[in-house]
Amino acid sequence: MNKYFVAFASILLSLNCLAQNPKVQNLMERVNNRYVGDDAYSQVKFDYKSSSGRKKEMLFSMWNLETEEGNKTLLKYKEPSFMKNSGILIHGFDNRTNLQWLYLSRASKREPRKIPNSDKGNSLFGTDFFYVDIEKKSTSDFTYSYLGEEILNNEPLKKIQSIAKNKEYPYERTISWVDEKLNMEMKIEFYQQGKLSKTLRVNKIETISGIKTATKVTVDNHKRKTMTTMSLSNVKYNQALTSNSFNFKALTAKELNL
Hints:
- The chain is mainly beta.
- The protein is 14% helix and 47% strand.
- It has two helices and 13 strands.
- It has a 13-stranded antiparallel beta sheet.
- The longest helix has 31 residues, at 2-32.
- It is globular, with a radius of gyration of 20 Å.
């Protein structure tokens, strides 16, 4: 009798998850479309810790711009000096594949190199962030499932599973803990080859110019036994940036004042 009850309960749970799908889609669209300023500037610090305890620090400048067709990001290396002026340029689109270019200032061939989708699962400058992790996602590229509610840091959060429709996406699935009040993902688990690969946690949120901003985020890499903390400082919103600033000239410039 118990096995029939369990089977029936499983069916009800599945139906409930299916019934939640429109709400889940709406929630993730609110997360994706949360207002983060028309544009933004910030200083970014990556603190990397290897499996042996070795530490490495990297400093960047980052500019972001929201556009009618998507968003644009420019990430420029500041320190250590041997990598200074290297960077990443991202042109994000709501309805088609995002484009990324990498520029290495010490490379023998000093010109921007397009990053193919198959390489976006590679490490970003040796950290535990992947190239794909710094892209803004489009909800139309994913299928969402509701996994229930869970308390995290004394707050009831929605657990949402995301599966990419693009088979080249580096993660088989992710599970997000979403704060409905803030429309922010507070924790994300990334799965590869059926196993938990990485866990991202938002450690600190600040209100800057009226905008809730995650200023400290940690990624634990369970495969490599490493950890990277990303911290934002000197965050400035709505600086009247334009699309003309997000090009190869800016990516390769030695000195840049947008």
